Amino acid sequence: MKRVICFITLLTLCLSFAACGKKNQTPVPELEPENLGSSSSEVLDTKKHLYFDEQGNFKVMIFSDLRVSKTVDEKIVDNMEDLLDQEKPDFVILGGDVHDGTISNETELRAVLDVLNAPLEERKIPWCHAFGVNTEGTEDAKTGYSRKDQMKVYTSYPYCLSKTAPDWVYGVSNFVIPVRLNDGDTDPSNDKSGFNIWCLDANGYLNDYKPGFEDEVLLKNLISGKTNLDCIHYSQMLWYQDTSIAFEAYNGRLVPGLMYFQVPVYQFEVIKRNPESQKFQGNNSSGATVISASERESGIFYTCYERGDIEGIFCGYNAENDFQGRYLNMTLAFCSTIGKTKVPETAGARVVSITRNGLGMETSMAYVK
Amino acid sequence: MKEKRVIRFLAVFVLLFVAITATGYGGVEATEEKNPTYVYAESLLKLKHTLRFNEDGKFRIVIFADIQDTYPLKEDTVRYMNQILDQEKPDLVLLAGDNHCGSLGNESQLKTYLTAMCEPMESRKIPWAQVYGNHVEGGYKFKMGAPGKEEQQKIFESFKYNVSKAGTVYGMGNYVLPILRSDSDKIGFNVFGLDTHNYLNEKTGTQQNLYGQKFENAVLVENPIYGTLFDPGGKYETIHADQIRWYWKSSLALEEYNGSKIAAMMFFHIAQIEWEYITRNPEQTNMTGKDVEGIWPSELSSGLFHACYERGDVKGMFVGHNHQNDFTGTYMGIQLGFTPTIGSLAYFSPETRGARVVEVDQDDAFNFTTRLVYCKDLDA
After folding, report:
1. B144 and which of A148, A322, B103, B320 could share a cystine (Cβ 3.0–4.6 Å)?
2. For B39-88, what is the HEC assignment?
3. Residues B47, B130: Cα–Cα separation, whole Å
4. Domain locations along chain B
5. How confident is the model at residue A290 (pLDDT cuts 50, 70, 90)?
6. Closest chain B residue by Cα to residue A290
7. First-to-last CA distance in chain A?
């Protein structure tokens, strides 16, 4: 009898263990960011928090391609201060080639940034930067002063909110800065984003990716006109999509935003070639017959369109261009420079006015008087 | 008494151990969570028929493009398919889209047609898979009432040797076919199939309500950037960003699972703009074959080519759609090629009508080779 009881008990135990194992089989995970990418709580975090004002407005100013040398022309700082006092932005992007590629160490960079950022730091205006193609030297003369090391200097300034995406993302200045909704709640951990400011690293020249890359990409007969500039890499686009999806999940809806990267996408040509239908406005003064897009079609324009959260793509590089237009429900806008320019008429900064807690966006140029 | 208890205790332990080992579920494993990447990779590895390299380490694929027929099928098309399969004895057959002309009005008609169309593969027990073209439910601005892609996929999968999958991203038939090595269960080669969809005005998804039937006008402005280069100029939908994202993450998950990078090829229906580099630079790209029609990519480029370049696994991409093109060339280390049509109901050229063969060696999978088999040579 005892043996029988013992046997039954054992059998039951064994079966229950086996069943238990089956129940605990892991289900196939979805390809979602929480499993294979970044999560929203990380990306919402910035050094200082940006908020819409009580009317639901927020103003961004983009100073693109200042391209200063080891000594900063005082006129740039004067012009910057004038425009800041005139526009009173809530946030500033120093886009593209902040310096011209001659800065080769921390002392030099700090000396330049101390002067350039003074107008922002003194006015307590939070700002960020997005690297341009000349960050680590010019096309032919590399300084060996890396983006990562330069990033450390930038982020050492109290009002600089620039960040770095995870290591698997190509480039260094890839980040998103949310403009938080004023929900009347004092606890920032409950905040939701009303508008996202995305910056992507423009990367460098083709040969900066690897030696000989230019010969690999630029064949004799090209499609979009020859530039030896690199494009946005796929890992950057993947990070943007994953992060955008994480924001959508966290907010319960798509979060509108703008995106800045230095080298223009080829789709700016659509605006230029179809001025009437695409609401072309401004100047195409860089003199080039074709805008300086990378020969590589990264697909970033289409990717933003498909995600549906980017209201405007802002670029520089052709620093005398300030035109803007509309294509596929997005604004494409050049940001001209206030620094050295062959066309003084276009010297200025781009102003992006975000209204209705992120649901409205308009942009115009503020020119140097 | 005590001894008996101890023995009983021991017996329980031994029996439990045996039972757990036999059922394959360790008590510890059962409670511990499995690496989600591995679970995901395992889900990709599940195919109706396991694909494996032959004993000699070789694997041969035949691609048929644009059969684009209706019922009853043209006698010569089926005959050529049979002849090619007998000659090449492939391990896998891929159908590169427009597998019927889109005029088959209902499920039973389509099933009758497909039964005849896949008979060459089914009767030889050769696993086969299809991607979709732009003639799925009709053609440009005309629909012929064929069942939707979901129903079509179900019919395709109902055939015993069809190994395609519906997929989880935009479109239908986005999947990977991992081919295992002959000497182990490691993956030796991946074949990715993607949907290139129909026409711009048929685009669905988040942006659908924005433009609806006017999407083509919104995209193809008077002076488009890519469309002007090509005839008829970019009216096709593009590969979606979520498909590329799926490819990247799947490729990465399989690599992690495998412990090493896996060589791959991709097949889909419509060429991307990068194919234009081949025809414009025949010498630099070692172009072989004919460019009779030019290429007809979408005006919207989603960047699939550069994503594949950066991932570094896909070394060849093969399309159909332009029935008379059969060229290949290599741009940035990736072979971009056409498979000419095998069919004869729609337009074709007697010079190029045929199929593409891809031959992979598991020990040199990144350097797979490809060649054409022409129908005109089968007649000789």
Report:
1. B103
2. HHHHHHHCCCCCEECCCCCEEEEEEEECCCECCCCCHHHHHHHHHHHHHH
3. 14
4. 1-32, 34-379
5. confident
6. B225
7. 104
B27 vs B21: CA distance, rounded Å: 10
DSSP state of A255: -
Q: What is the pLDDT along chain B (380 residues), one digit of tens a residue?
A: 556 666 666 666 655 555 555 554 444 444 467 788 899 999 999 999 999 999 999 999 999 999 998 889 999 999 999 999 999 999 999 999 999 988 887 888 899 999 999 999 999 999 999 999 998 887 777 777 778 899 999 999 999 999 999 999 999 999 999 999 999 999 999 999 999 998 888 775 444 456 767 888 889 888 888 876 776 667 899 999 999 999 999 999 999 999 999 999 999 999 999 999 999 999 999 999 999 999 999 999 999 999 999 999 999 999 999 999 999 999 999 999 999 999 998 899 999 999 999 999 999 999 999 999 999 999 87
Question: Tokens 């115009």 sit at which residue?
Answer: A364
Q: Which of chain B's residues have a Cβ under 8 Å away from the Cβ of A14?
A: 15-16, 19-20
Q: Which of B7, B17, B25 to mutate to test the interface with A (most CBs of A within 10 A)?
A: B25
Tell me the CB-side half-sphere exposure of residue B71, using CA atoms within 13 A.
16
Rg (chain A; Cα; Å) = 24
Q: Does domain B34-379 have CATH number 3.40.50.970?
A: no
Q: Which of the four pLDDT bands, split at 50, 70 and 90, describes residue A20?
A: very low
**What are the E-state strand segments in chain B?**
51-52, 58-64, 92-95, 128-130, 138-139, 142-143, 175-180, 187-193, 264-267, 314-319, 328-331, 334-338, 354-361, 369-374
Which ipTM value was assigned to this complex? 0.89
**Phi and psi at residue B204, to the nearest 5°:** -120, 180
Domains and CATH numbers, chain A: 36-367 (3.60.21.10)
A 302-321 → B contacts, CB under 8 A = 302-303, 305-308
State the best of B12, B221, B228, B309 to mutate against chain A, taking most chain A CBs within 10 Å: B221
A299:B306 CB<8 A: yes
Helix locations, chain A, DSSP H: 2-23, 33-36, 40-43, 74-87, 106-122, 147-155, 206-209, 213-217, 234-251, 268-273, 300-307
* Residue B188 contacts residue B365 (beta carbons within 8 Å): yes
Angle of helix B36-45 relative to helix B241-258, nearest 10 degrees, comes to 100
**Bridge partners, residue B178, by sequence:** B190
Q: How many CB atoms lie within 10 A of CB A260?
A: 28
